[in-house]
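Form 7-S
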Amino acid sequence: MQSKRFGLPVHVTRHAAERMTERKISQIELVDLIDTGMPRYKDDTRLWVAKEFKGRADNLICAAVVLEDRLVVKTVMHHFKWEK
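Output:
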């Protein structure tokens, strides 16, 4: 997988892959989330990206990612809410 937004290959950790399977989030949805979702940076390299997908009843889907020499997806959540 490759992120157009970040210009980096995407690496999905084992944990994130397991959460994707459990939460029925496809690789196509994950790439769409990363490339078109709303980012919120924790610092220069760590961020969350969230997006609402039509047809899903679980609110926002969010990926916690780290920007390195590749984009590392650490986990994928659903029923996500931004903290204030």
